């Protein structure tokens, strides 16, 4: 399994300048290659139009990576216009061509339906003004971690890294990233032994209902609230955004305010990621099986709830739960998108129809039941019942989460 390990890096002013050069070279290679491919594609389109008398004519071959690498890196380096490529490791530039290739492929596959999920736009030209800059160093670039625990990157230097945890094995690559708020990160790709993180099985499962007022309500009646530090960061972000909107366009003060907004944004994103990591770890390590709704984030985003949905960042949370479950030998099951978790009485099973979002508490109308429900807790319990049913139906007949679920589903 491949995992990413990210650490904060603090480059010296000189290293910043050299990193900016590497980012710049990478950007130029990307743009040169993109322009070349686009030109060929446009020419072929012209040759292929029905009213063109050369319609049958020979099409131009779309240049492949080896051609691009030869003309746009190796040979270009010798020209005056691209002489500054000497400031960038060749491997980084070749990696850029591979990244561009992958971007084209993602776009083509998404067009033909080979790739699922949202549509992927064709690759775009990169700008110096882009918020995020990055450069990936592979093994061939001979980057290293020095005796003094610094990260040695060719053409940049020995960077000071804030190591917050140990790398489980030798990383295959490292990406130097400058994020939108001007911070630098080293992101390592590490191959891990899948067996190393599998936890011993436990006899518990949990259903999660992701809510608006509380971050999540669990089937056992407990809930997860957004932590104070996250709410504080969000409050600060809103304040900074208000300040920015009051600044005059094009003014120096507006630029300053914009950086403050970007910093506040980064802080919210970081806090939220920590919060999601913490809870997804807790849930997947304490439970053998975790059940959740299937989110239609894109669908909800079109409605009035959009803001809170994005703010809550459920998709990231569910994604964390998913990969942690795999990693720890646990399971995460999503119940169908149209499963009416808030319509069914979790005590007697009566389906009571849709309820408006403002109905937080309701009473089951079944004469023999009459249970009073907290909307979210009831939904969490229903998600757990439904998840157990799905797991029991799909799991192989071996002991483990499936067997547990089969027993409980009865
Ligand atoms: Zn009932």
TrEMBL record:
High-level lineage: Bacteria, Bacillati, Actinomycetota, Actinomycetes, Kitasatosporales
Compositional bias ranges of the Basic and acidic residues kind: 128-137
Domain Probable transposase IS891/IS1136/IS1341 as annotated: residue spans: 205-302
Alphabetical GO biological process terms: DNA recombination; transposition
Family under the similarity heading: In the C-terminal section; belongs to the transposase 35 family.
Residue stretches of biased makeup (Basic residues): 235-251
Source species of the chain: Streptomyces oceani
Residue intervals of the Transposase putative helix-turn-helix domain: 1-37
Limits of the Cas12f1-like TNB domain: 314-383
Region (Disordered): 107-137, 235-258
UniProt protein name: Transposase
Domain of life: Bacteria
Transmembrane region(s): none
Keywords per UniProt: DNA recombination, DNA-binding, Metal-binding, Transposition, Zinc
GO MF annotations in UniProt: DNA binding; metal ion binding
């Amino acid at each position: 399994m491949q995992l990413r390990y990210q650490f904060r890096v603090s480059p010296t002013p000189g290293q910043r300048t050299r990193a900016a050069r590497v980012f710049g070279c990478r950007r130029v290679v990307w743009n040169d290659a993109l322009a070349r491919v686009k030109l060929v594609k446009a020419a072929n389109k012209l040759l292929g139009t029905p009213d063109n008398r050369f319609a049958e004519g020979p099409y131009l071959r779309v240049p492949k990576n080896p051609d691009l690498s030869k003309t746009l890196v190796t040979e270009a380096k010798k020209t005056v216009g691209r002489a500054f490529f000497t400031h960038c490791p060749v491997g980084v530039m070749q990696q850029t061509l591979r990244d561009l290739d992958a971007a084209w492929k993602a776009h083509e596959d998404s067009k033909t339906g080979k790739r699922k999920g949202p549509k992927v736009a064709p690759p775009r030209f990169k700008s110096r003004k882009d918020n995020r800059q990055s450069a990936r160093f592979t093994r061939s670039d001979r980057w290293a971690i020095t005796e003094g625990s610094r990260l040695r990157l060719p053409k940049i230097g020995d960077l000071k890294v804030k190591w917050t945890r140990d790398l489980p094995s030798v990383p295959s690559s490292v990406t130097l990233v400058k994020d939108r708020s001007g911070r630098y990160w080293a992101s390592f790709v590490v191959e891990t032994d899948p067996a190393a993180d599998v936890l011993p099985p436990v006899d518990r499962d949990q259903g999660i209902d992701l809510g608006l007022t509380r971050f999540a309500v669990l089937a056992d009646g407990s809930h997860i609230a957004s932590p104070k530090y996250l709410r504080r960061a969000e409050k600060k972000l809103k304040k900074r955004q208000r300040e920015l909107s009051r600044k005059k366009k094009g003014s120096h003060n507006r630029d300053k305010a914009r950086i403050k907004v970007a910093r506040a944004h980064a802080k919210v994103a970081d806090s939220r990621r920590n919060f999601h990591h913490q809870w997804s770890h807790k849930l997947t390590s304490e439970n053998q099986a975790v059940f959740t709704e299937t989110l239609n984030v894109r669908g909800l985003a079109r409605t009035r709830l959009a803001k809170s949905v994005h703010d809550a960042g459920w998709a990231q949370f569910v994604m964390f739960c998913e990969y942690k479950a795999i990693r720890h030998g646990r399971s995460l099951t999503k119940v169908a998108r149209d499963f009416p978790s808030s319509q069914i009485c979790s005590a007697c099973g009566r389906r009571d129809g849709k309820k408006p979002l403002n109905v937080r508490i309701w009473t089951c109308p079944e004469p023999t039941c009459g249970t009073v429900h907290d909307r979210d807790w009831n939904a969490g319990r229903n998600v757990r019942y439904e998840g157990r049913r799905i797991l029991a139906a799909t799991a192989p007949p071996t002991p483990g989460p499936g067997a547990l679920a089969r027993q409980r589903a009865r």
